[in-house]
Amino acid sequence: MNNIIFTRDIRADLQLKLADFGIADIFVLVDNNSRNFCQRSFEDFGIPEEHIITIPEGEHHKSLESVAEIWQVLSDQGARRNAVLVNVGGGVITDLGGFAASCFKRGIHCVNIPTTLLAQIDASVGGKTGFDFNGLKNEIGSFAIPDWVLIDNHFLATLPERQIMSGFAEMLKHALLADEEHVAEAMQVDFAGVAEEDFLKLIRKSVAVKAAIVQSDPREKGLRKALNFGHTVGHAIESVAIRRGLDIFHGDAVAYGMIAELFLSVQKLGFDEKHFEAVRKFIREKYPVYHPVAEADELYELMLHDKKNEQAGVNFTLIHKPGEFDIDNYCSRDEIFEALKQI
Prior knowledge:
The protein has 343 residues and is an alpha/beta fold. It is built from 13 helices and ten strands. The strands form three sheets. It has a six-stranded parallel sheet, sandwiched between helices. A two-stranded antiparallel sheet has the order 6-7. Helix 2 links the parallel strand 2 and strand 3 (52-55). One of its GO terms (cellular component) is cytoplasm.
């Protein structure tokens, strides 16, 4: 976590981190939402307008076309290998910007300023970058650790509740991978105080769970697969939602996926059924009601494309109890179909 800074004064910390870069070497990537912050915070830096790259917001713009647009601006403006790309926004921005920076001139500097809860506790930690391809989420990407990640939860005061809950699904996942105390704390959060200092401490605790796993397995050869808990089912749901323009956020899909994968944990690893029911009840109370986005067969076919699959079938991370989990659990088609009924 040496490259992650938790701050309540992001302008001061950003100015400190960019002090070694000349104005001509600083480029900024934003979307239409985060551009407002950019204009307020970068006006003191004197960064020229043509160095601010704006792409439309939304998952459907997480594409090769957007990456090419970033590269085009960098090239047109004569960005050198010692340039820095500052990515200001949610997970789409940090994923796209991180990938673009990792490839341009075989790698330029990169600073992430995540402005959503999801990006702060997940997308900006661990160095995964990339974009969606052929209707499959994060199909193309690379591992590229940013020079710095600056996390300031003041941004969260500007977000609608749906966005907060989308990020919180990852916090709940981290809690389940940590211990029972962390789960209890997560399920008692005061969502009215997400911009307060106490909530920043919870963000720090959640990031620490992910960072510890990433540091032990940076290239996802083993233990890091645990961070995909809830995502095997969740990404299948999300991929269908993106294709069909459905109102399902990433965190919604992961929350639904955790229900299904906790049920598999009950069936295959003996996860406590009362704990399962408590988590399912919490998710059903906090997240939109799940309406099946596709037949089970279609979701199953999408799960077969999951990057964790190293042999025939679908690979899951399942949980014995909070803090004790097993990677590489291959589940049958019938087991998965039964789990999907639990959502």
